[in-house]
């Protein structure tokens, strides 16, 4: 445990305290960008944050604002808005790494921090598809003609949020049933039924169910914006949401079946 007002003497010391093996080796809690490169960068930002009086929850609040800014930037037409969203999506994940590191260094972890983290990710991943629906409708909006595209964006947001909520529903169900908290280990979510397990493994070869995190959504929005340069107006934007929505529904159904077939909801 470190003193609340102490500062690390080196990046190596900061990594030792804030990035223990149980953090770096988490199977599901770490996004691939964190494992790939953000955890290599985050201690430098955490170092600067620790020089201020900002709390871990304050850093999480900053993460929320960056996430909302990511969605808002998609309201800027063309490649400029999508490119800004791509950068801000990465920044949100970087700050998301830092809030936990600040909390671990200052021993400042709390349920409020976990709650705020959930608010940040749920709201960002709801606002982004809403913004994609508005992009598909074109700007400025004309109602009622554009209701169809904004509705597709809202429907996509709803499905994405429901899919995210399923994991939290598992934890709530286990807690209400008096069961132990699930460990974050590989294989914990493996379905016990053979057919479902095979389908789940097959999905790894075409992991469309992973498209609905804010990072992936901003990446494909950027690719769509580039494609739009070579296509008639709004074709790329509208094709994007029309493709994402049915795939999101399929991912939601598959996720539900996988949970029900796993040991996570078994006593």
Give a quick set of tags describing it:
267 residues, mainly alpha, Four Helix Bundle (Hemerythrin (Met), subunit A), 10 helices, globular
Write the layout of secondary structure elements.
Layout: H1 11-18, H2 21-24, H3 32-49, H4 56-73, H5 78-106, H6 111-137, H7 147-176, H8 194-203, H9 214-228, H10 235-260
Q: In summary, what is this structure?
A:
This protein is mostly helical and 267 residues long. The protein has helices spanning 11-18, 21-24, 32-49, 56-73, 78-106, 111-137, 147-176, 194-203, 214-228, 235-260.
Q: How would you explain this protein's 3D organization?
A:
This protein has 267 residues and is mainly α. It has a single domain (11-265), classed as Four Helix Bundle (Hemerythrin (Met), subunit A). 69% of the residues lie in helices and 0% in strands. It has ten helices and no strands. Helix 6 packs antiparallel against helix 7. The longest helix is centred in the middle third of the chain and has 30 residues, at 147-176. The mean pLDDT is 86.
**Number of helical elements:** 10
Our estimate of the beta-strand percent is under 5%
Q: Taking Cα atoms only, what radius of gyration do you get, to the nearest Å?
A: 20 Å
CATH topology: Four Helix Bundle (Hemerythrin (Met), subunit A)
Largest sheet: none
What is the structural class? mainly alpha
Global outline:
globular
Which CATH C-level class is it? Mainly Alpha
């Amino acid at each position: 445990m470190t003193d609340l007002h102490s500062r690390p003497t080196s990046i190596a010391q900061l990594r030792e305290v804030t990035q223990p093996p149980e953090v770096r080796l988490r199977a599901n809690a770490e996004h691939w960008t964190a494992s790939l490169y953000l955890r290599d960068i985050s201690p430098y930002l955490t170092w600067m944050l620790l020089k201020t009086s900002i709390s871990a929850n304050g850093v999480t609040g900053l993460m929320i604002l960056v996430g909302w800014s990511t969605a808002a930037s998609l309201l800027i037409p063309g490649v400029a808005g999508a490119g800004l969203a791509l950068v801000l999506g990465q920044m949100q994940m970087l700050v998301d790494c830092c809030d936990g590191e600040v909390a671990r260094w200052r021993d400042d972890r709390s349920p409020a921090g976990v709650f705020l983290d959930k608010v940040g990710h749920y709201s960002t991943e709801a606002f982004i598809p809403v913004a994609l629906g508005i992009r598909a409708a074109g700007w400025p909006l004309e109602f009622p003609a554009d209701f169809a595209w904004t509705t597709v964006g809202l429907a996509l947001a709803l499905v994405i949020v429901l899919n995210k909520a399923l994991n939290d529903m598992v934890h709530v169900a286990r807690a209400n049933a008096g069961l132990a908290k699930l460990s974050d280990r590989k294989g914990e979510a493996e379905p016990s039924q053979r057919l479902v397990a095979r389908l789940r493994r097959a999905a790894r070869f075409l992991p469309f169910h992973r498209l609905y995190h804010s990072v992936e959504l901003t990446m494909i929005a950027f690719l769509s914006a580039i494609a739009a340069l070579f296509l008639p107006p709004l074709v790329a934007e509208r094709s994007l949401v029309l493709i994402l929505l049915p795939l999101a529904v399929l991912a939601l159904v598959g996720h539900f079946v996988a949970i029900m077939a796993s040991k996570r909801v078994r006593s």
